[in-house]
Design a protein that fits this description.
The complex is a heterodimer of chains A (about 110) and B (about 120). Chain A has about 110 residues and is mainly β. Chain A contains no helices and 9 strands. In chain A, the strands form 2 sheets. In chain A, strands 1, 3, 4, 7, 8 and 9 form a 6-stranded mixed β-sheet that branches. Chain A has a 3-stranded antiparallel β-sheet with strand order 2-6-5, with no helix packed on it. Chain A is globular, with a radius of gyration of 13 Å. Chain B has about 120 residues and is mainly beta. Chain B contains no helices and 11 strands. The termini of chain B are far apart. The mean pLDDT of chain B is about 95. The chains are: A mainly beta (about 110), B mainly beta (about 120). Chains A and B meet through strand 3, strand 7 and strand 8 of A and strand 5 and strand 10 of B.
């Protein structure tokens, strides 16, 4: 079981909103920045969100991040077929001195 | 344009050793921490190690600590990961990534390491 937990799957129809959760603890999510990555099929991951809620240049504003306490969320608004991918949260952990990735959430566009 | 190109992957016997490399270009390599992240076939991303700008600080995942060494050559814009005592659990695509604002901002295309007899 991952120390940073994500639901294994999420889905929605085109145009719907989807929210992916990322649950951790005081030593990681509550204390440190959360990052979100998108991995399209057969591709290397790309950075979607940094610093809990900031988007790098080029990332559509349909993607937004938030954090409260020991949990973080990635919201995708106006779901599109090209959003079908795996999404990972990541953060630093003080107790282990490691970067932790969540187990990943596969988003399916129905 | 930032480019990261991994190399050195391949088939290695259990118990063997391997060094994977990452050639960086398009940015000032010596200004950035760097990471290695791996992904076993059909599985999720797993962080492996990171190194600071001059190589004086390194951190490792528990699963590789003592068996892997991350290093860099700033003169050559190269990042390395030396791995030993390899097992099937180390079979994965190994990605190098440039750190930016604490995130893995740019990723290479990965190099596949297969541990099998």
């Amino acid at each position: 079981q991952s120390l940073v937990a994500q639901p294994p799957s999420a889905s929605g129809t085109p145009g719907q909103n989807v929210v992916i959760s990322c649950s951790g603890s005081r030593s990681n999510i509550e204390t440190h920045n959360v990052y979100w990555y998108q991995q399209l099929p057969e591709m290397a991951p790309t950075l979607l969100i940094y610093g809990d809620d900031k988007r790098p240049s080029g990332v559509p504003d349909r993607f937004s991040g938030s954090k409260s306490g020991t949990s973080a969320s990635l919201a995708i608004s106006g779901l599109r077929s090209e959003d079908e991918a795996d999404y990972y949260c990541a953060t630093w952990d003080d107790s282990l001195n490691v970067v932790l990735f969540g187990g990943g959430t596969k988003v399916t566009v129905l | 344009e930032v480019q990261l190109v991994e190399s050195g992957g391949g088939l290695v016997r259990p118990g063997g050793s391997l060094r994977v490399s990452c050639a960086a270009s398009g940015f000032t390599f010596s200004d950035h921490w760097m990471h290695w992240v791996r992904q076993a076939p059909g599985k999720g991303l797993v962080w492996v190690a990171r190194i600071n700008v001059d190589g004086s600080v390194t951190n490792y995942a528990e699963s590789v600590r003592g068996r892997c060494t991350i290093s860099r050559d700033n003169a050559k814009n190269m990042l390395y990961l030396e791995m030993s005592d390899l097992t099937g659990d180390d079979t994965a695509v190994y990605y190098c990534a440039r750190d930016w604002a604490g995130a893995a901002r740019n990723w290479g295309q990965g190099t596949l390491v297969t541990v099998s007899s």
